[in-house]
Amino acid sequence: MKTQVLPVDEQSIQQAAELLRAGELVALPTETVYGIAADARNGEAVRKIFEAKGRPQDNPLIVHIADMEMLQGIVSQVPERARKLAAAYWPGPLTMVLPKGSEVSEVTCAGLDTVGVRMPSHPVVQQVIRASGVAFAAPSANLSGKPSPTNAQDTLTDMDGRLPLILDGGECSVGVESTVVTLVGEHPMLLRPGYITKEQLETALGEEVLVSAAILEKLKEGEVARSPGMKYKHYAPKAQITILKGSLARYQAFVQEHAAPGVWGLCFDGERQILPIPCIEYGKEGDGAAQARRLFTALRELDKQGAQVVYARCPASDGVSMAVYNRLIRAAAFRVVVL
Ligand code: TXA
Ligand code: MG
To answer: Which residues line ligand 1 (CB under 6 A)?
Structure first.
């Protein structure tokens, strides 16, 4: 299959809408990362997403909507908590897990009786949904296991020949996938951290939000993942990454000792010049939002440079940084060394 990459204009939006209505795939930008869209009600169409990504069949997809009316048939109930969060953070990088509506294909939800829904703020998503009338399922547009793409070029690298159209809407502003919170249990629980923080959810809800154990640690043997996506190896470049927790001075001493061909650093802005190994920078120290924006392109850049062993500076793990730490620790297969 030939994959077209088109700039966003009226014509390409129409083309995307027609493809979606015909049960085909379209890759497109959202404010978080690029996604691969297919009609969430059409099981045959959604199956093509799993095929294109090489994604395990038991990992459910998020349904994307453009307004509150579109929730009809997608979810079976809109609890009060969902109304509060929607009022505060939709459209935006927040996914809510709710009771599944009858119209969503079982393939989309991987057989679960719940569905993840989000209303993205990106204008291209809004335009494509309006033009097609289609609520679409969309995972990140990477090959399963790779870092999520945050631009059209990285999307093409993974998806060339696997789908007909990529809409090029430039770099994504957030850079990591949406926050996922489940509202089906007794207490709201954060399943995946993102740009909307636990504290922001708590402010809008007026109650505590639990944090799923799998976010910051490895699942224990036999433990069940509440969000199936969290059990897979993720965001991994080819290099073996180790996170080094400690001051810049200790990091500097450690990498000095371990310098060798193929050894790279993943460091904060402005640190590259003083380090004795080649480094890619991924945002300012302490600035979770800047790190989130840079992380996935930095991981892909390490691959392009042929890095084999990577030592990463450790981000914080609260606020927006929780999202950065959560992705990096998976990319590092949970290898953390305290200096
Ligand atoms: O920002 C995003 O959310 C991007 C863009 C494209 O919108 N999409 C995205 O989708 O990250 P994906 O498929 O890469 O990640 C979806 C995550 C997975 O961890 C999945 O297990 C979880 O959401 N999820 C989806 N539906 C769920 C459900 N019903 N219950 C629990 N977890 C669910
Ligand atoms: Mg993904």
So the answer is: 30, 32-33, 35, 59-62, 93, 95, 97, 109, 112, 114-116, 138-140, 177-178, 180, 191-192, 227-230
